[in-house]
Amino acid sequence: MTEVTVTLNGKPRQVADGVSLLDLLEQLDVQPSRVVVEHNREIRRRDDFAKTIVHAGDELELVHFVGGGAAGGNDPFVVGGRTLRSRLIHGTGRYASNEILARCLEAAQPDMITVAIRRLNLEGGRSELEGIDLRRYTLLPNTAGAQTADGAIRLARLARAAGFSDFIKVEVVGDEDTLLPDPQETLEATRQLVKEGFIVMPYTSDDVVQAIRLYEAGAAAVMPGAAPIGTTLGLQNLLNLELIVNKVKVPVIVDAGLGVPSEAARCLELGAAGVLVNTAIARAKNPPEMARAFAEAVVAGRRAFNAGRAHIGVKAVASSPVEGVPV
Question: CA-CA distance, 277 to 275, in Å (whole number)?
């Protein structure tokens, strides 16, 4: 059989001329149910794998998802029409092993977890998130790695084709050193994906006006960072976060840079609807215990917000009456 050259996940590869996508996946030992196939920049449905033929010069991308407290009752956490019990969104990247990640998820009991969209590893080896039952969670795919609106939109479409959900966390990097988001490209991607029916949750800086624009563009939630991604520097600008909470009428989920559970509680005390935590858990000395602590912190923070803090005064007021004190 004649062999031809195609581009598979960015690299040239020899395949049989006229082979179907389904047969090619079988030759690569890839389960069709676990992969999304983009063929010449068009996403192919699984039902079409058998009749889609590969020819010389074709471009193929095989991608899958990798690793990227309950406050229920009368105070639901609703995002994009989905009710979540936990206000802690749990990241899945940078864990030492899938086993440790599984223990963290068991300790934290999140309802929503983030996943990244990456090319399938065709060289063998264990897959990320292997052994994690993704069906237990609402998946929040992210567009991490995108540097343009078009790149983020492409990743979002691939995520939707996997059939898990219409949720998408838009991330468009604007600066390689800080990984801070590009405001214009993030806003453009948000507008387009909202038009396509996605439930868009954009990652943004703590810029108040940018948060308002994302809300106006139809974002289901706004996700300002506490500090640059992965730094665990903690809350750097409480004022702006509080202003964002007060200005937008969708859930505000503080994302990126949190270091310890007390900071997560502080976010909830300010009125944030939730937090997304990854590195602070994954790089802790005891990740499962840290995951549990963050889950408990968001419950305490939300309970404090609902209780309403005491009036802030500048004059000391005794908590015990002074009448009747012997003099």
Answer: 6
Beta-carbon count within 10 A of 231 CB: 18
Domain that holds residue 167: 68-307
Q: Burial-class residue 47 by CB neighbours within 10 Å (0-12, 13-18, 19+).
A: exposed
Q: Which pLDDT score, from 0 to 100, does residue 126 have?
A: 54
Active site residues: 169
Q: How far is CA 191 from the centre of its chain?
A: 18
153 and 241 housed in the same domain = yes
Look up the pTM and report it: 0.79
Q: Which amino acid makes up residue 190?
A: T
Mean per-residue pLDDT, 227-255: 92
How sure is the predictor about 70, in pLDDT bands with cuts at 50, 70 and 90? very low
Name the domain count of the chain.
2
User: Hey, what are 94's tokens?
Assistant: 């940078």
Residue with tokens 């010069």: 57
In degrees and rounded to multiples of 5, residue 163 shows phi and psi of: 85, 15
- How confident is the prediction for the chain on average, in pLDDT? 86
